[in-house]
Amino acid sequence: MGPGVCFCAFMLPIDRQRSIDTNVTRMMSQAQVITNQIASTGYLDNQSVDFLNAELVALSNAYSGRVMVIDSTLKVVKDTYDIDDGKYVVWDNVVSAAKGQSASYHDKYSKCITVTIPILSLSKKENIDNDDTDVSSDNSGVIGVLLLTRSTEDIDQEFEFQRNLFGEMLIIAGMLAFAIALFFSNRYTHPFRLFKRRVHNLKENGKEGEWKKFYTEDGDISDEFDGYRERAVAMEDARQAFVSNVSHELKTPLASIKVLADSLNGSDGAPIEMYKEFMKDITLEIDRETNVINDLLSLVRMDRSGATLNIAQIHMNDMIEDLLRRLKPLAEKQGVELVLESFRPVLCEVDEVKFTLALMNLVENGIKYNHDGGYVHVTLNADKQYCFIRVEDSGIGIPEDSIGHVFERFYRVDKSHSREIGGTGLGLAIVADVISLHKGEIKVSSVLGEGSFFDIRLPLKYVAGGVNDEI
Ligand code: ADP
Asked: Model pTM?
């Protein structure tokens, strides 16, 4: 469309002007021939030169214009319109030609081209031919003027015709382009409309609906969408499993408490020892419920405040030493030895409260799932980029098929054993969340019956949103 409009607006007028210029040149050369004939036949003095009269009339007819022969006194000696014969004309262009200057003029309003050229005497013309003298500088040899007019209506009509033709072609080309664009846009957007319908069906009634891939792009979008949907479904499943786990974990101690309380209510006259024992069990169940609620709160806080870590540079050696000191009484009670081995002083950027909680859970597990006389060995090391912490124990170990699950919420290898020793199944989930918030990594390896290793790698400098390589 654009090039077509440019053509109509700029090229057509240029073409018209060129046609007018060509006509002017042709008129000039024809007029030149006739002025020679006028000079050689003495036509200015005697107009009874038949072939010249016929030629002038033929030229006038051919151009649908007028031919005038004017002598040096500016008197019209021949007018093919037979209007001004014998009259004197003092038009500017005629006067200029009488002074030796040829001229042409295109009048757009009266739609004609006028050419005026001087008629030179034969002697003057010979001089010019020989000497190449400029006639306009000297009018001594000018014996008359030939005036030629030509109608430009045929040129204008041709121009109009071309303009209309291009206009129509433009409209047709525009309509064609529009139809083609409509066809292709319809064709290319068809898969996306189908995709939208599929998403709509899924949203409204959970049904997949028909689906066919047409192009690479819609196939890619659909694959991405399927990936996202699978993730959303997995997240929803995990959420439901978590909710049912939470309600189960909260209900179990309550159910035990109710059974214990009902037994006490129904047993009139029971010995005081029985009351004391049942009350002890009730207290234990309340402690268990409190632990679960505290761990759940830690996890929820972690989920919500991931972006608001209270990062500070801490001495890892001091922090771990302090932590082991706090856990010493528990370790002694279990008959487990706690050892710290630091290879160098390590400064690391962490949220101290959250990171202490994570390490505490790991060391506590090492103590809980251990034998009398066992050990928990904590090693601290670092390179230029990372801090490495290993928590190693000589405990019961984790079965191979459970290793991939120990970081899941509420996962326990041995439910009853874990409950017995006060486990909630949330400790390692909290550890994993804390390490991931610090852009670190944790890996576990274990040999059943021999012990377990938990290896942590943590960037020394905390970078918000940073990505770390695999260990
Ligand atoms: P819990 O509160 O039950 O200890 P965790 O999330 O801390 O929950 O641990 C999940 C499960 O992984 C535990 O129930 C236990 O079976 C197993 N586990 C964790 N740490 C150790 C360890 N150091 N040695 C052996 N088993 C472990």
From this structure: 0.57
